[in-house]
């Protein structure tokens, strides 16, 4: 297996990760990190709730390009590692819905218990049915016509080596927007497998980012979002 430097979010740890099939060995980067926590209340929230579903491990990073010429845009990145859920777990309780505004990951059960204003801040579902789906396209979450008030997001699959994805995230975040024009087909839901890479467009905020499917078992997905470096 060929060894290349790739973007990971297990920072400040002196070890390498070995992936199979489409994944490569990883060298860690040294950038600030913080662990994203589960919601503080509501069904499907705490990892230590009696009978609750274990919450995924989420590591969040912010990358600012070293070169001033490109430093006007930075990248916020999240690596999500879901535990292995057995067949008895209710899929509605598995955290699948992601919010790029704060890195929150919630279950359908939890989201149905909160007010519609907070639901409108959602962007997409990542885990359920092994596909990425725009949150405003999910009928269980949005009874018509409320869905038209939710945030709109679009996806497009492109073939890109891990080394290039890493370069975009760490040194050229604006490339997520620049390469949107090379997307052949724009979708609001799309199936995935290990090794896939997608660019997404948050049309309401006019922001761009990427989603990389690192592994299916265990399920590991990385999300990147380019934002102004203010």
Walk me through what this model shows.
This protein is mainly beta. It has one domain (33-228). It is 10% helix and 28% strand. It contains four helices and twelve strands; from the N terminus they run βββββααβββααββββ. It has helices at residues 108-111, 116-119, 162-171, 175-178, and strands at residues 33-35, 57-63, 73-81, 97-99, 104-106, 124-125, 131-134, 153-157, 189-191, 197-202, 207-216, 219-228. A seven-stranded antiparallel beta sheet has the order 1-2-3-12-11-10-8. Strands 5-4-6-7-9 form a five-stranded antiparallel beta sheet. The protein is globular, with a radius of gyration of 17 Å.
Short description:
With 230 residues, the protein is mostly beta strands. The protein has helices spanning 108-111, 116-119, 162-171, 175-178, and strands spanning 33-35, 57-63, 73-81, 97-99, 104-106, 124-125, 131-134, 153-157, 189-191, 197-202, 207-216, 219-228. Strand 11 and strand 12 form a beta hairpin.
Mind summarizing the main beta sheet? 7 strands, antiparallel
Percent of residues in helical segments? under 10%
The structure class reads mainly beta
Mean pLDDT, to the nearest integer, reads: 78
Helix count equals 4
Name the poorly predicted regions.
1-32, 34-50
In percent, how much strand structure appears in the residues?
A: 25-35%
Strand order within the widest beta sheet: 1-2-3-12-11-10-8
Order of helices and strands: EEEEEHHEEEHHEEEE
Shape type: globular
Distance between the termini: 41 Å
Q: What's the β-strand tally? A: 12
- Radius of gyration equals 17 Å
Tally of domains: 1
């Amino acid at each position: 297996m060929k060894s290349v430097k790739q973007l990971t979010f297990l920072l400040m740890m002196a070890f390498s990760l070995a992936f199979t099939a489409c994944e490569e060995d990883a060298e860690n980067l040294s950038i600030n990190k913080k662990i994203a926590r589960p919601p503080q209340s509501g069904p499907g929230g705490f990892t230590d709730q009696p009978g609750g579903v274990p919450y995924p491990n989420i590591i969040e990073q912010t990358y600012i390009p070293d070169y001033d010429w490109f430093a006007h845009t930075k990248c916020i990145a999240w690596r999500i590692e879901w535990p292995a859920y057995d067949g008895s777990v209710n899929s509605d309780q598995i955290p699948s819905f992601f919010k790029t505004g704060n890195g929150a990951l919630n279950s359908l059960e939890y989201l149905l218990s909160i007010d519609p204003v907070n639901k409108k801040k959602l962007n997409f579902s990542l885990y359920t049915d092994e596909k990425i789906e725009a949150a405003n396209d999910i009928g269980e979450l949005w009874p018509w016509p409320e869905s038209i008030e939710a945030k709109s997001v679009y996806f497009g699959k492109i073939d890109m080596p891990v080394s290039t994805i890493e370069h975009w995230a760490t040194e050229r975040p604006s490339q997520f927007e620049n390469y949107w024009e090379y997307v052949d087909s724009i979708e609001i839901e799309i199936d995935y497998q290990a090794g896939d890479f997608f660019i997404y467009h948050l049309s309401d905020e006019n922001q761009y980012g990427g989603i990389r499917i690192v592994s299916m078992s265990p399920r590991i997905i990385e999300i990147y979002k380019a934002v102004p470096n203010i």
